[in-house]
Amino acid sequence: MLMRTYDLILKKRNGYPLDTEEISYLINEYTTGQILDYQMAAWCMATYFTGMTDREISDLTMAMARSGEIMDLGTIQGRKIDKHSTGGVGDTTTLIVAPLVASCGVSVAKMSGKGLGHTGGTIDKLSSIPGFNSELTQDQFIRQVNDIHCALVSQTGKLAPADKLLYALRDVTATVDSIPLIASSIMSKKIAAGADGFVLDVKTGSGAFMKELSQAIELAKTMVSIGKQIDKPTVALVTDMNQPLGQMIGNALEVKEAILTLANQGPDDLTQLCIALGAEMLVLAEHSPDILTAEKQLLTALRQKTGLDKFKAMIRAQGGDERIVDSPDRLPQAQYKIPIYSNQAGYIESIDSLELGLAAMNIGAGREHKNSPIDLAVGLELKKKIGDYVTIGEPIVIVHSNMASSDQEKIRAAYTFSDKKVSAVQLIHMRNT
Questions:
Q1: What CATH number has the domain bearing residue 221?
Q2: 85, 178, 185, 288: which one is catalytic?
């Protein structure tokens, strides 16, 4: 039967689900240029308003994954578990979790991307390590994982090209914030990267894409459902981004914080989340029988610094200067360190993560546009977080900048204070399997 794009748009507009063949037709024809942008934009808008069934979402995910190359990681020993974050401010978890899990004997073969906007990209952070090469061939990638259990590389443009096209279209047609389209976008790239299972960190709060907890929970459930539909074990944690994670925002600064955390000297919230995510990976990989056992193994690895050793081995294997592990000051350094002093006294009640992320982006730590240059040395160092007591004149942030001035009032405005003691933030809101 001959398919017409018009009929598929009409069917979706009227609230009827598309079948597997119809979704494959849409994605294949759009990827090859046979379906034009205005028609696909109409289908996206129809989907935005009428939604998709679980089966439709998994079909869309697989169609986008199959639109390009699917990595074959079969020659890597053991089960390969990928960890993905929906993005946040100061989210350094990949740099910690990957070597930490690898030090326990589970292979981590991870492809990551560059950052855009106020959320940092793992590859940008790794680029602050002198000499580090994130552009490995597939053979080099697999060989390194088999040798040392860990590799972090750039995503190839051959993975899920349909998603790249569709996301660019959604970005200019007000259809980005559709749960089915977000979930299939994320999962198509993860599936194309060849992992056997997925641990998802779905952020919620002021510094996250999903501002509302209910939205984040819906996204988590949708992605876990995709995993079940395609027989890929998937776990999602919904975690807080109402304040930046850890104390550092910025590329070299976050690498330094990752080193401190792997040396068991990191901030409590960052350490706690890395242990939680890593434990889920160890259990999905069938390395540990349960979460409690896995957490104990990871805490032992932190105390014994085996994860730090693995991080050093990965840097060495990928051509980077491993000396930064023992001497983090070898990382790029900003010319100025500008303290921002509080003009209020009291307990910090809230922090606008988005505003701090944008402040870091504005001094060069992030990209406003896809091709914007970044300054690997710059960023923000948080001296106080929610629940901490602050006196007037006490520093709350140190700005690491290559400009002599900073937008101090904008940074101060990101903080609100209370006269009463404030409870610590709940870091993990829920677990979905």
A1: 3.40.1030.10
A2: 185
